[in-house]
């Protein structure tokens, strides 16, 4: 139950991303700075935490051993995750992006065959090829149904091009985030804690964010003071607090695809938290009845996932990448 609770708290702090990114877009800020400033500002906060815990040297040693691996999966897990999400915020409200983002649950399950599972059984350690958890996938389609209901309402008011620009980047991000996270779990092999892993991936993704920032300087100019402050808030709430909570939750169920899917399913709560935040702080109109039904279906699917994850006997599993 602890991983589920941590996942829900992570969802609450992740919701700040969608609310503040939408606020930055409404005030004229560019998605380029919304994306790059978050990770740039995350570095000092994470450095303070990791140094205070006296864990910086083991992290740097691990990164030095496999620099290309860290650069690749950090770019995928952070760069190809957050840049598309910020780009989509220019075309859709935060709650709609948060709802569409829940497709990451299905994306994560489809990634199962890319990993091997080492399971501790009564007869010893057994290594098996990772599989797509069909039961979990069937429950995930309940969440997908909710997303479709929400998008149907938007389809009647938005152009096709706007819908595509608001949806396709989110789908790309939905595969990139769990893939990068799981691959880095395998690379770290329990040698690093969640704080170290988040800091390491942030440092390894900095080349991408710095290049994006340079592009932003030549295309949209420097960010405003308001956007800079909001980016700091996103860095602390979503970048540090939410990411560490979520990574810790996934570490607790590392390799158990059923429970990993349940932890990832808790992120559907972002929809409710984001909607509530936008109504309170941005004074947006409440979604239509059809969209509200869709939101309820999404959350219901998450609850079913949580129950399903505890219906089976616990097994100790460790995921190993090909």
Could you please describe the fold and organization of this structure?
The protein is mainly alpha-helical. The chain has one domain. The chain is 75% helix and 6% strand. It contains 13 helices and 3 strands; from the N terminus they run ααααααββαααααααβ. It has helices at 2-26, 31-52, 56-65, 67-88, 94-101, 104-110, 134-155, 160-188, 194-219, 225-252, 257-265, 269-281, 289-309, and strands spanning 115-121, 124-129, 316-321. It has a 3-stranded antiparallel beta sheet with strand order 2-1-3. Helix 1 (2-26) runs antiparallel to helix 5 (94-101). The radius of gyration is 19 Å and the shape is globular. This is Membrane protein. It comes from Peribacillus loiseleuriae. The chain crosses the membrane at residues 31-50, 70-90, 96-116, 136-152, 158-177, 198-218, 230-250, 271-304.
């Amino acid at each position: 139950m602890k991983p589920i609770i941590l996942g829900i708290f992570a969802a609450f702090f992740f919701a700040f991303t969608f609310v503040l990114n939408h606020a930055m877009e409404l005030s004229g800020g560019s998605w380029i700075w919304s994306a790059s400033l978050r990770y740039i500002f995350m570095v000092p906060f994470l450095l303070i935490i990791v140094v205070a815990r006296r864990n910086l040297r083991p992290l740097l040693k691990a990164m030095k051993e496999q620099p290309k691996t860290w650069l690749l999966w950090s770019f995928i897990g952070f760069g190809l995750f957050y840049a598309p999400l910020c780009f989509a915020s220019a075309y859709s409200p935060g709650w709609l992006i948060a709802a569409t983002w829940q497709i990451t649950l299905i994306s994560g399950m489809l990634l199962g065959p890319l990993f091997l599972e080492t399971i501790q059984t009564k007869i010893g350690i057994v290594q098996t090829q990772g599989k797509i958890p069909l039961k979990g996938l069937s429950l995930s389609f309940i969440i997908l149904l909710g997303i479709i209901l929400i998008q149907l309402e938007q389809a009647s008011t938005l152009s096709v091009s706007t819908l595509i620009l608001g949806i396709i980047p989110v789908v790309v991000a939905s595969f990139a985030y769990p893939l990068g996270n799981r691959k880095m779990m395998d690379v770290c092999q329990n040698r690093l804690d969640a704080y170290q892993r988040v800091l390491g991936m942030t440092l390894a993704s900095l080349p991408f964010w710095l290049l994006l920032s340079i592009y932003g300087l030549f295309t949209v100019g420097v960010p405003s003071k308001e956007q800079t402050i909001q980016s700091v808030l996103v860095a602390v709430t979503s970048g540090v607090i939410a990411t560490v909570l979520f990574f810790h939750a996934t570490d607790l169920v590392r390799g158990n695809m059923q429970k990993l899917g349940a932890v990832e399913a808790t992120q559907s709560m972002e929809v409710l938290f984001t909607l509530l935040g936008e109504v309170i702080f941005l004074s947006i109109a409440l979604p239509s009845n059809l969209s509200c039904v869709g939101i309820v279906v999404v959350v219901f699917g998450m609850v079913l996932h949580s129950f399903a994850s505890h219906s089976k006997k616990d097994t100790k599993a460790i995921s190993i990448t090909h």
